[in-house]
Specification:
There is one protein chain. This protein has 119 residues and is mostly beta strands. It has no helices and 11 strands. The strands form 2 sheets. Strands 2, 4, 5, 6, 9, 10 and 11 form a 7-stranded mixed β-sheet that branches. The chain has a 4-stranded antiparallel β-sheet with strand order 1-3-8-7, with no helix packed on it. A hairpin with a 6-residue loop joins strand 4 and strand 5 (46-51). The protein is elongated, with a radius of gyration of 14 Å. The model has no long low-confidence stretch (mean pLDDT 96).
């Protein structure tokens, strides 16, 4: 199994920045893609950004140019740098890791970290 622990959330004013971190433990050698998702009250969980094991990235249109995902494989950690934050970015942010076990792909989720952007 893979365990994920997020950190770095908090309260910030519109236009500010936050950096989220997600540290993986357990079968980290089996991790492939990692990503960040978010869920606002009353809404479905949505993709924010993903990063493949080779470094390729993908972003939701709503965060392109403002958010940057990166990973530090030596530390089994993925980051989300969030700049120019908007009130609509307010949500619980979850880290996700896809890992391989017995030739099948599984996913693990972190517990989530709250990001609140005030106007």
């Amino acid at each position: 199994q893979v365990q994920l622990v997020e950190s770095g959330g908090g309260l910030v004013q519109a236009g500010g920045s936050l950096r989220l971190s997600c540290a993986a433990s357990g079968r980290t050698f089996s991790i492939r893609a990692m990503g960040w998702y978010r869920q606002a009250p009353g809404k479905q969980r949505e993709l924010v950004a993903t990063i493949a094991s080779g470094g390729g990235t993908n972003y939701a249109d709503t965060v392109k140019g403002r958010f940057t995902i990166s990973r530090e494989n030596a530390k089994n950690t993925v980051y989300l740098q969030m700049n120019s934050l908007k009130p609509e970015d307010t949500a619980v942010y979850y880290c996700k890791a896809d890992f391989i076990r017995s030739a099948d792909i599984y996913s693990s989720w972190g517990q989530g970290t709250q990001v609140t952007v005030s106007s």
